[in-house]
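Obj: model holo form, ligand = nicotinamide-adenine-dinucleotide.
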Amino acid sequence: MKLLVTGGAGFIGSCFVRMALREKHAARVVVYDKLTYAGNLENLQPVAGRPEFRFIQADILDGNAVESVLHEESPDAIVHFAAESHVDRSIHSPAPVIETNFNGTFTLLEAARRFGLKRFLHVSTDEVYGSIPEPLDADENYPVRASSPYSASKAGSDLLALSYFTTYKLNVTVTRASNNYGPYQFPEKLIPLMISNALDDKPLPIYGDGLQVRDWLYVEDHCNAIFAALEKGSPGEVYNVGGNCSLPNIEVVRRILNAAGKPESLMTYVTDRPGHDRRYALTNEKLTRASGWRPQMDFNEGLAATIQWYRDNRDWVARVKSGEYQRFYELNYTSRS
Ligand code: NAD
Ligand code: DAU
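Output (holo structure tokens):
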């Protein structure tokens, strides 16, 4: 299969590309990525020399660049990861989030429609359902009730993508995954931020009471779900992708501290995130029924492997924390403490 992967230099996209080339033997993988603060060519270094691999630095908002690559490469499918992916950034600065996540997806869909693309996989999130009251688990028919500019931009792009199936018969499938963790994640998200602060003996900032619940999904399990949805998913359908691992944030942070051998006194309670969703919870049954996919990674094992990766890759962490990261950390955390 020939794949065009947007956002393939980010956390999940780069895992997908490494797996596509090393395990799934894809005939061709073209990464299309703007290289924002979150995009990093080092994430693709393990496959950069492969003849089947090509990297293009470009913006998904640039319709001409998207059309050119479609005509040059004739991919069998677009797998669309590119996004502004951080909720806190979307609260401080919503404009680029709406631009990339909604208008960028629109640009890709239009190019795909005009080209006559055979398959479009839109990677989305469980955040589109908003906070789920206990004891419910959201299935794909749960109402979309996004809370943050980030989740609203993803919900809007999901609906737009699905409208291209309904109206133009573009072969679109949407996946909605829960919170990912694993190697190469930019240390602005909960797990890598807490690991990196713990390893540096710095305070671990917990928003509000820390009892918010998230479902944790190992990044390779997520990528396998996307391969499953590409192969077995039906056009016009949405598939949830969860890790079957719901935990309150403070429990996740405690496990990180225990696994890293650091004291719980590093935990620091700070001002809550505005509009903070209390609980995410999903059922995966639809994707399991369609493809047999199930999450495989045990959370404690995945966490231990992730902590080890951050210990072994201190240089990667130092490099990604050297620039934009510092500015955002000041902006997001100084006013909270
Ligand atoms: P990330 O922030 O690590 O990477 C995003 C990538 O997109 C980067 O390489 C960046 O350079 C690129 N990008 C951003 N704007 C672009 C633009 N305008 N044009 C081209 N490239 C651009 O994100 P991630 O955590 O890997 O998430 C990937 C996708 O998965 C996103 O669509 C996100 O909404 C979705 N998702 C993420 C999670 C999670 O827990 N991280 C869970 C569910 C769904
Ligand atoms: O649910 C899927 C979503 O998961 C993805 O769509 C998003 O791209 C991804 O960023 C993630 O969103 P969250 O907002 O859930 O992830 P984040 O890692 O930012 O926060 C996880 C939880 O931890 C959330 O309840 C907020 C809390 N938190 C986060 C940070 C960064 C803290 O308590 N302290 C922090 O410093």
